[in-house]
Amino acid sequence: MTTAAVKPLADEVRALARERGAVILAHNYQVPEVQDVADYVGDSLGLSREAAATDARVIVFCGVHFMAETAAILLPDKTVLIPDLDAGCSLAASITAEQLREWKAEHPGAVVVSYVNTSAEVKAETDYCCTSGNAKAVIEAIPQDREILFCPDMFLGMWLERVTGRKLRIWMGECHVHAGIRPADIERWTSATPDAELLVHPECGCASQCMAFGNGRTHILSTEGMVRFAQSSPKERFLVATETGILHRLHKEVPGKRFEAVSERAICKYMKLITLEKLRDSLRDWKHVVAVEPAIAERARGAIERMVAIA
Ligand code: SF4
Questions:
Q1: Cβ neighbours of residue 7 closer than 8 Å, sequence gap 6 or more
Q2: Residue 189 belongs to what H/E stretch?
Q3: For the chain, does the N or the C end have fewer beta carbons within 10 angstroms?
Q4: What is this structure's pTM?
Q5: Given this model, what pLDDT does residue 48 score?
Q6: Residue 259 class from Cβ within 10 Å (0-12 exposed, 13-18 middle, 19+ buried)?
């Protein structure tokens, strides 16, 4: 959108949010104009924490459906809106509650750790949720002698095995965006830019490959971790391996440094379904309300609260 077109729409969104007593939470992967109008921009963990802490009566979730569902589970007395109901997630769709129940039956007594990118029904079958920001700490909080089923992201699971030294049973799911960032993308960039630090999200198809380790300038980080790392690093140039929406936040919060996407194709079509117009319509027309069946929400809440509590 042009700056001239964004300004009146952004003003309308802010006015409606005030009128409605709503807080706007936006994921790092949202389009720039949605990030800019939000009260808070962050990754899944940061957004969950922000949702849990807000006094606002209404939360408009500019992200994908499981994120809005997570807020609805944590805050049953608040209204949670998502501007487009079709904003799904290929990773969350890679395991169903029925599949998880069958897997658990094959491993009685195992602890289930689910990445937050799962449906409410899967969370209801889960002991601990985690995000890429706290997945390592969650695994380390589980006693050594307990078997762990980790779902649904195989690349994050393989990375966790390496950094914790624990053997996990891993579900073979993947995010099509992150899985599409291949070792060849990384190799091409790192050889062409010896002065750049490489920031890789653990969901990426390259993160669990040996070539991403043992190299002093490769850092496996959540998106929140990427922002913090770039802010504190003395380096000036960074290659970023995750969904390209994070570049807007990096440029904004770490001004003066250079950020480049390892793959320009790393775009999540679900995240990009949310537009400023749809956000305005959501606030104006009170749509789309995200609600979770109380019995499912009750069972899912414990796993999410454990995720929010573990740093
Ligand atoms: S980038 Fe991948 S994991 Fe994130 S919302 Fe899109 S499909 Fe899901």
A1: none
A2: helix 183-192
A3: C
A4: 0.92
A5: 86
A6: buried
Q: Atom 2 (ligand 1): residue with closest C-alpha?
A: 175
Asked if pLDDT for residue 97 goes beyond 70, the answer is yes
Which atom in ligand 1 lies closest to the alpha carbon of residue 153? 3
Query: Which amino acid is residue 284, in one-letter code?
Result: R
pLDDT tier at 45 (50, 70, 90 boundaries)? confident
Residue 96, SS3 per DSSP: coil
**Residue 296 token pair:** 């499912």
Output the ligand 1 site: residues, CB below 6 A. 29, 64, 89-91, 117, 175, 177-178, 243, 268, 270-271
Q: Which residue owns the Cα nearest ligand 1 atom 1?
A: 268
Average pLDDT of span 57-83: 96
| Residue to probe by mutation, ligand 1, list 271, 273, 274, most atoms within 8 Å of CB | 271
Judge whether 206 and 181 are in contact, CB under 8 Å: yes
Segment (H or E) for 169: strand 169-170
Taking residues 161-169, what's their average pLDDT?
95
What whole-number distance in Å separates Cα of residue 275 and Cα of residue 281? Answer: 10
Nearest residue to 243 (alpha-carbon basis) of 60, 82, 91, 84: 91
> Which pLDDT belongs to residue 263?
92
Whether the bond into 152 is cis, omega within 30 of 0: yes
Smallest Cα–Cα separation from 47: which of 65, 68, 16, 33? 68
The C-alpha atoms of residue 25 and residue 66 are separated, in whole angstroms, by 14
C-alpha torsion 79→82→83→88, nearest 10: -170
- What's the CA gap between 168 and 166, in Å, rounded? 6
